[in-house]
């Protein structure tokens, strides 16, 4: 429980990000907020669904507000709400809105009612501001990897998580296993394939070079990092993120139109045939679901997986 105890009926003020809302009666809504000092709070916003509501659009998901709340027995009551960071930048493009909803849903799943988490609040405010300023293809992935690291679940990326051998040569890192918590070498491989480019990006994100990573343009590697981050977070919370799956499918559809390279050999892959020049099938993007992303397909000619060659 929060050490900042508030008695029933008392007013308290805090800054918060609106995580989600749902209907309550004809004109009211229940608002779920991640507050700076009190953790996740559920509160009733009376009359918010009316066209002349005093709250306007300030209590919509992704809004950053300063709120005055009255403590209730089960649900608090929103008395006032003033905008800190408005929604206009977030709604200026579909990419920004999709990224914003993805990180807000993740924060909702990671936070607990009545449990203050100022670091999560600060990270959420920071990533929403970054998305509003520049919708990097790695905004969502960076947030996911960072919150996992904050929870003590930073993946092992510099050597094989199983045998401990350094990345390179016969022990080059070629796979990522969510149960193991990191990358695996050729000899220990399990889980799903990971490319050297994706490994480098993840090292930048978690190694103090976040700005460098966010400056990258969308590519096969950035899509791979986003997919890995999504699956890692879903593995941690043990449920599927609905809003992330939408943005991830969009990312994967774009990836299908790009030129990528085989993760094992250096040969380019034809996006039309999804094969490298040696005839090995790596991905069949247009025929695979999001849940199967990253799993290597078998070859039509050799009968072996590309990652086993």
Structure description:
- The protein has seven helices and eleven strands.
- It has 309 residues and is of the alpha+beta class.
- Among the domains are: 78 residues, OB fold (Dihydrolipoamide Acetyltransferase, E2P) (Beta Barrel), CATH 2.40.50; 123 residues, no CATH class.
- A five-stranded mixed barrel has the order 1-2-3-5-4. A three-stranded antiparallel sheet has the order 7-6-8, with no helix packed on it.
- Helix 1 packs antiparallel against helix 2, helix 1 packs across helix 7 and helix 6 packs antiparallel against helix 7.
- The termini are far apart.
Give the gist of this structure.
The protein has 309 residues and is of the alpha+beta class. Helix content is 30%, strand content 21%. Strand 6 and strand 7 (182-185) form a beta hairpin.
Helix amount: 25-40%
Given helix and strand content, the structural type is alpha+beta
Name the strands of the widest sheet in spatial order: 1-2-3-5-4
How far from one another are the termini?
Answer: 54 Å
The percentage of residues in β strands lies in: 15-25%
Written as H for each helix and E for each strand, in order along the chain, the element string is EEEEEHHHEEEHHHHEEE
How large is the count of helical segments? 7
What is the general shape? Answer: elongated
Q: Mean pLDDT across all residues, rounded? A: 81
What is the oligomeric state here? single chain
Radius of gyration: 22 Å
| Low-confidence region ranges | 255-309
Q: Got a strand count?
A: 11
Largest sheet: 5 strands, mixed, barrel
